[in-house]
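Morning run. Coffee first, then this:
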Amino acid sequence: MAHLYVVPTCALYRGLKPRASMAIYHLSASIVKRSAGRSVTAAAAYRAGSKIEDLTTGIVHDYTRKQGVDYREIISPVFINTIGSEWLLDREQLWNKVEQIEKRKDAQLSREITIAIPTELDRASQIESVREYVRSNFVERGMIADINLHHLNGENPHAHILLTMRNLQTSPEGKIEFGLKNTDWNSKELLLAQRKSWQEVTKGLA
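And here it is:
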């Protein structure tokens, strides 16, 4: 089952490592667009260092030899407690459903957030800080988040967060499916709030 819960922020700082430099803040946001020749199945496979077959094109995106992927997880805003909802936490099924429901040649397939992870945190706290941030800023609003943390032991630890852009709804048969695009998630004000939320994490380490 996928559960929503929030870890108190103060718990993260018990995992501080001795620091030699100030925490660096970075957050960038972009859209995976079909008009740019991109597919979200390819993007998800690359970010996760995994293998995904695009069921629409038949192309297999195999990045299983990619190094530096230290943690991967899909977090869903609903409980996985109904028949046929397993796709919510299955990377290949999830992003294939996105590819299939978006019919336009210029479709926006996914939003991607990239953040720098503080090196001052130990590995467990790096992971939990990203999970808490994702749950409170995206998942609780209704998005499915595919998170992938890279190079946690290196000089540039960072996370790629792929986000769905449609509401989830229940079909007449009781199955969870994608509904309409949620345009509220495109607002500049929401992005500014998401930036501020991650900045607060790094500011606490400065």
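Strands lie at 27-33, 51-53, 60-62, 69-75, 108-116, 145-150, 158-163, 166-170, 176-181. Good start to the day.
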